Amino acid sequence: MKISAQExxxxxCLLRVAKSESGAAxxxxxxxxxxxxxxxxGKLMAVLRHGGVLDSVRGRSGGYTLAKPAEEIGxxxxxxxxxxxxxxxxxxxxxHAGTEAPNGVCTNRSGCTLKSLWQTLxxxxxxxxxxxxxxxxxxxxxQLPELLRERLAAAVFADEPQLLTLNVVx
Amino acid sequence: MKISAQExxxxxCLLRVAKSESGAAxxxxxxxxxxxxxxxxGKLMAVLRHGGVLDSVRGRSGGYTLAKPAEEIGxxxxxxxxxxxxxxxxxxxxxHAGTEAPNGVCTNRSGCTLKSLWQTLxxxxxxxxxxxxxxxxxxxxxQLPELLRERLAAAVFADEPQLLTLNVVx
DNA sequence: TAAAATCTTGACAAAAAAGTCTACATTACT
DNA sequence: AGTAATGTAGACTTTTTTGTCAAGATTTTA
Lengths: 170, 170
Prior knowledge:
9 helices, homodimer, Arc Repressor Mutant, subunit A, disordered C terminus, DNA-binding, mainly alpha, two-stranded antiparallel ribbon
């Protein structure tokens, strides 16, 4: 459940591009700033570009720019480009069926317990992360914990506000 | 940010032990039920035993039992035994310092932005997960999404209830 | 005591992730 | 046109994670 190297460094490099004021950010520029090799940053940028969050320009004064305004790039979607979600519907049941599910239908009790656990956890986390944008990361550096908490609260109560009164009663 | 094999399978095997009604659960028993090799389950159980959530008995009618009642074993702590947290204070700044922190003090702006992001995310997630026990996983199988959401809401509002009114106003 | 069933441990093998290297394509500047 | 600075792509190497194997220790049962 830890954050992969690609997620950590990819996000950092993307932040560098977002912060870059003088036009496009170049590979050597980003690599130096983050203390990574140029080759590795090149690989990370390729992932982000294919994911659609970055545009690139080749040639002498080339480099990378954001494909959309920083205000429109949510953290959740960035992390999905760079790595895998907590729970991946597509191959979960195939990989973890166990012997209680011989008929193809997922009858594995403990398996499906965990499936719905991961699924729910993934849902709240992604929802919360997507409400924090690259712009937030740059502007609200100091208040990030408070911001995250606020967005988390908003996400939890967004769907069914009646939970609110339920919570007040306690 | 995905769940590691050790976390997934370790938790499953632990659930098997918790569900086992006829005394201790044996390696072959668990391995068969989960569709894993006996050797691999043996390794996973060793991790859980060293982590203090399992007791083992050797010999002919041996096997594994929970070291504590299932009601007292929180998911967050189990997952910390089986894998790494989202954010690990100890080596984070050392690994990700970049070139803006040459003096040892962490002056890396984007680095520390992410640090507080991961730290906060880890905080809520762990807090929420620790309020769900092995017993919950067994008893409340069907209502797990609702349960998780409820516990998440409780965790978010536990420290500072004034956020509640703030949210009502919206 | 012997045999069978179990857990324990550390070395090993296989697979996946992280990171590097090389050759090349594109653009700007002179 | 030539050169230097940039991004691109795929093969490769290294490291970490996953999973297996083999030898041994413990307990029960006959």
